[in-house]
Amino acid sequence: MDSGLAALLGAAVGSATTLGAAIVNGRAQARTQHAQWSRRHRRDAYAAYLGALHDRDIAMDAVLDALRPDAPDLSDVDEKTGRFVTLAREVHRAAEIVILEGPAPLADAAERVTHASGDLSHVVRRMAANARAGDTTHKAEDTVLAAERQAILYRAIKDFRLAARGAIDRTD
Hints:
This is Proline dehydrogenase. By secondary structure, the protein is mainly α. The chain has a single domain (about 40-170), classed as A middle domain of Talin 1, CATH 1.20.1420. Helix content is about 90%, strand content about 0%. The protein has 4 helices and no strands. α1 runs antiparallel to α2 (about 75-100), α1 (about 5-65) runs parallel beside α3 and α1 packs antiparallel against α4. The longest helix has about 60 residues, at about 5-65. The chain starts with a helix and ends with a helix.
């Protein structure tokens, strides 16, 4: 074989090998970048949801504090309830993104938070209605029930947080 042909053949094999390696590396890099993007996107969705939950929970605490006196200031209760409702809508909006982003176990954890939040909200709505009616007969038991439901809600949020951490770690 002539040396020029051997050099040309060697260059062709080297070029093909380099091109193949570049394609493989490019695909691996694209997968890595996509995984990082997905992880960051999920983390941002989970963080937004947890932030919305935090803001809503502070508003719920304010409503409960406004209902504590024997004769609560109903305009204050209404104002704080309005803020709570606005923030609850933000939580639902953030939850939709979490549910879309998945994975399914995390969506289930978010649903448990929603259920626990609804149970607590039901008690608080009843407390506010009783305050408007001037009925204090169930105030003590409703206050205890609200505290129990709040503890259940906080456990559900903690479970969501742990599930979110696990989901983020698995997308690496």
